Description:
Blueprint: H1 4-28, H2 35-38, H3 40-44, H4 68-72, H5 77-83, H6 86-93, H7 95-127, H8 131-134, H9 159-194, E1 203-207, H10 217-228, E2 233-241, H11 243-268, E3 275-277, E4 287-289, H12 290-314, E5 319-327, H13 330-337, E6 349-352, H14 368-388, H15 390-399, H16 402-408, H17 413-416, H18 419-427, H19 429-439, H20 441-452, H21 457-488, H22 490-493, H23 501-508, H24 513-533, H25 535-547, H26 552-559, H27 566-586, H28 591-611, H29 624-647, H30 655-658, H31 660-676, H32 678-681, H33 685-698, H34 704-708, E7 721-722, E8 728-731, E9 734-737, E10 744-747, E11 751-756
Antiparallel strand pairs: 1-5, 1-6, 2-5, 2-11, 3-4, 7-8, 8-9, 10-11
Amino acid sequence: MASLEDLGVSAFINILSAFAFLLLFAVMRIQPINDRIYFPKWYMSGGRKSPRRGSGGHGVGRFVNLNLWTYLTFLNWMPGALRMSQAEIIQHAGLDSAVYLRIYILGLKIFVPMTILALAFLIPVNVSGGTLFNLRKEIVSSDIDKLSISNVSPGSQRFWVHLLMEYLFTAWTCYILYKEYDNVAFMRLHFLASQHRRVDQFTVVVRNVPHVAGHSISESVEQFFQRNHPDHYLGHQAVFNANKFAKLVRRRERLQNWLDYNLLKFERHPDKRPTRKKGFLGLWGERVDSIDYYREKISELDKKIASEHQRVLKDPKAIMPVAFVTFDSRWGAAVCAQTQQSRNPTQWLTDWAPEPRDVYWRNLAIPFVSLSIRRLIISISLFALVFFYMIPIAFVQSLANLEGLEKVAPFLRRVIEIKVIKSFLQGFLPGLALKIFLYILPTVLMIMSKVEGYLSISSLERRAAAKYYYFMLVNVFLGSIVTGTAFEQLYYFLHQSPTQIPRTIGVSIPMKATFFMTYIMVDGWAGIASEILRVKPLVIYHLKNMFLVKTEKDREKAMDPGSIDLPETLPTLQLYFLLGLVYAVVTPLLLPFILVFFAFAFLVYRHQIINVYNQEYESAGAFWPLFHGRIIASLLISQLLLLGLLSTKKAANSTPLLTILPVLTIWFHKYCKSRFEPAFRKYPLEEAMEKDMMERASEPNLNLKAYLADAYLHPIFHSIEDVETGEVRVDKGQSYMTSPSRSEISSSPQYVYHYEIEP
Length: 759
């Protein structure tokens, strides 16, 4: 069991690591060569065109900041991160980013008063208990445990203080959760109402379109919606399977990129035209003019693209049983999306279409039966994955409990007892090792979520976050307590009567607080500091810039920062809420570690959202109901664990009163669910009608059909370019054909989307 000295070593290492990361960041961010790494959002939004230069734009000043004054004000990023208001953040980064930041504010609101009360009242009560001073020496404990509930004598009247505090903490948490849920729901409704026009408010995705003999899927969709929604149906986009078409489009983009590179090269040196060899990768063969070579290749490829387009449209097997259906009003779309369309509940399944950036195109055409089978298989696989990881988790926990392990493996004692090694193993290595084990999990869980068949990226991220939360709950939290207790008390379990085992477990549960303190310091202190340094993107960008970047488009791709990693960050935050709520009454000394994390992480992620991350979609805070539910689950877990702990402490008078809390907490959750969740799941018809009437009054001549025509085209390319054939255009990732029928087509790695409108 780690002592205060071991915890001090861990705190010193992590504080030193965090300070080193922050110091490096402060220096690296002001170097012109790194400007696109630490401020990519401003480049992507057009707010910045060129890197900062410390002393002129020539020579060394292009790469290194030569202005010494900026080195003396290297901490000005901190007030800069706090300067932007919430309304400005919503306008700058979107509502999802603003709601994400409110999670850290929620943590501070909940845990600051709890920390003050716990340190002021619970620690004195625990210290005065004196139980651990009188236990047999076989029970492993430390000075930190003497500050916890384990130090209170069984049957003591002091447990009334813990019971009272649990009631106060639950009431305060529920009050803050209610206020925050109300606030976020208002922010969401206000955000949606303030949007001038969103294409997803007029669009419904329909799946499992039944095949009708003699009719194509597209004809069936049009007939069905003209018959059942005659007053508001506007048009639809059918989905075609066109893998070959997508490959040709991506190949054309690569050739176009090489052509742009050679044109720039010729522009810089007009006296010498660039050349290349015609063989494989330009390694052998006849040497030819590079510009003419790539123009010829692109011209040949354009003909193949046009031919493949016609083949796909004429192939009845290429069309998929799914479509994007558009309506002439928000009211019409809301009625369709929120009602059952067919007497057969497995056909004509409708739901709100995600916004175009949020669509996960590969999952659009998965059949209903296949979805059910996929989700069953993934549920079984998730269960196996969670318990497979118990093996490395158990080993990690054994490192944090060396005294207990020595009793089982005494031959390790000579190495373990070296003071430096012992402090390092107990104070730093367990949290670091656990972090490494968890590093590969988000990728695996995201793949599993994609297999389940959800239609939007935001849904995939929420499902992956839920899986990650279950994993962390079972392995990191419950697994750490159970496994750690078994190793720690193994010797005593084998040498005591069975009637004493429940008491031993009751005493041991709060003893795991030391492990979680080290984990919070590694992940929540040093880990957050490394987040702002962006070591991995820094290295990757400079490597790409040296070897792969040929054009400005390549440079934009190389500096793309991506968005906040919600599948990983949300479950981590939920774990910290769980730890704070569970140990607030059991071991109050853990709460200051939680507070430092929330305050520090809020500052860092505010800076990252303002300057770095670029959200690839906008769900208007749709993840909040799930996050709220996780905190309620944490409250219930804390109450049940305290109930079990007090039952082992012979607190017969106070324990029964604790059984009321879970019932009240569940009632509170159901009330919040019915009160606020509809704002995140449905679009009120009243508001839809009001928005439609206001829009018609302000824009009576609006051509909504033209506005919605190419809204759901898949983004692959990033420039508009007319090619010699005049038939194919490449428009910001959309590859589509122009024809007299005004058909438009787009490609993805799996499908092509064809939009049909009336002449």
